[in-house]
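Exercise 7b. Backbone tokens:
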């Protein structure tokens, strides 16, 4: 029995090593991916629940791996964060999203805001604000057409510094949203201190708003609280008419989800812009 136990540990070790090796390979691929231009952005519309008009779009990174095909950001973003590759990748995302949004404005589409996800480790970079300003100048996009999505985890290391950085971003005219709201634990403590404009209700809460569950307590509470703090609320992951209806009845401002559209590569998103009513 003792031996069997030890063998199990050895098997476990071997599996761990294989996983570690696999991640190492993927990390190397990530680095090359940036050079080989294997990344692209997909855009998902955000629409007003009252009017159905498009108010903005979220830029979401996609990786077309030469052998594996499309790799999910849920898989490679954590790895990019661990290896700090998220710094150059994140900068690429910002530049690409700003350039694309400016191109759409120049092409005559009504101006809307592009939302870009920032990871906590980007947020901790001392030159973050300078980098963002440089990109806006380079691309010519006006600051009010960029929005940054952050999660509560950015406050984990140094809350005061995180708030100071948010102020710098905000003072420059860039909006800030709290992403995945309700899944962190510091929410209510800090919310009042954050210079933010928008809360995004996490899709896990939207998913529970079904015929069977009727679990609307959390979205209802988030919407009421956000409005009392003068914040806009966007529901993510809206897939059904019923969820849309329930959110609308509760005064949620905007929505994002497959019901309207999946995230689309730029050319297909442009098609959608032709068809959706504009802001
Ligand atoms: P997120 O920021 O919460 O993005 C929302 C995710 O929900 C996206 O997954 C989107 O495709 C998906 N989604 C949108 N509508 C629906 C829906 O109706 N139903 C369902 N089931 N899902 C929906 P995606 O694109 O796979 O991204 C996953 C996560 O990866 C993002 O979550 C974000 O945390 C991260 N991520 C994506 N792009 C970037 C990026 O450029 N930078 C950083 N730092 N993180 C990113
Ligand atoms: Ca997001
Ligand atoms: Ca989210
Ligand atoms: Ca998420």
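Sequence design result:
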């Amino acid at each position: 029995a003792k031996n069997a136990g030890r063998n199990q540990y050895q098997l476990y070790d071997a599996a761990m090593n294989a996983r570690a090796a696999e991640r190492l390979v993927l990390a190397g691929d990530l680095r090359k991916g940036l050079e080989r231009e294997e990344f692209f952005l997909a855009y998902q519309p955000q629409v007003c629940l009252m009017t159905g008009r498009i108010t903005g779009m979220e830029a979401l990174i996609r990786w077309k791996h030469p052998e594996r095909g499309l790799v999910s950001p849920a898989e490679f973003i954590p790895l990019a964060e661990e290896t700090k590759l998220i710094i150059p990748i994140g900068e690429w995302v910002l530049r690409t999203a700003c350039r694309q949004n400016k191109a759409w404005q120049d092409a005559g589409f009504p101006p809307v805001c592009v939302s870009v996800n920032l990871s906590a480790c980007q947020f901790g970079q001392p030159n973050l604000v300078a980098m963002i300003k440089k990109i806006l100048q380079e691309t010519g996009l006006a600051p009010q057409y960029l929005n940054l999505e952050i999660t509560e985890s950015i406050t984990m290391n140094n809350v005061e510094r995180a708030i100071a950085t948010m102020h710098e971003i905000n003072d420059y005219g860039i909006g800030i949203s709290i992403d995945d709201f309700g899944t962190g634990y510091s929410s209510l403590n800090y919310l009042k201190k954050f210079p933010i404009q928008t809360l995004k209700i996490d899709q896990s809460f939207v998913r529970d708003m079904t015929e069977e569950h009727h679990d609307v307590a959390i979205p209802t509470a988030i919407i009421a609280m956000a409005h009392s703090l003068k914040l806009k609320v966007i529901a993510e992951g809206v897939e059904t008419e019923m969820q849309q209806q329930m959110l609308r009845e509760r005064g949620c401002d905007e929505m994002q989800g497959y019901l309207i559209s999946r995230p689309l590569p730029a050319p297909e998103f442009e098609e959608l812009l032709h068809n959706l009513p504009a802001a």
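Instructor comment: The CA atoms of residues 152 and 187 lie 7 Å apart. The two ends are 69 Å apart (CA to CA).
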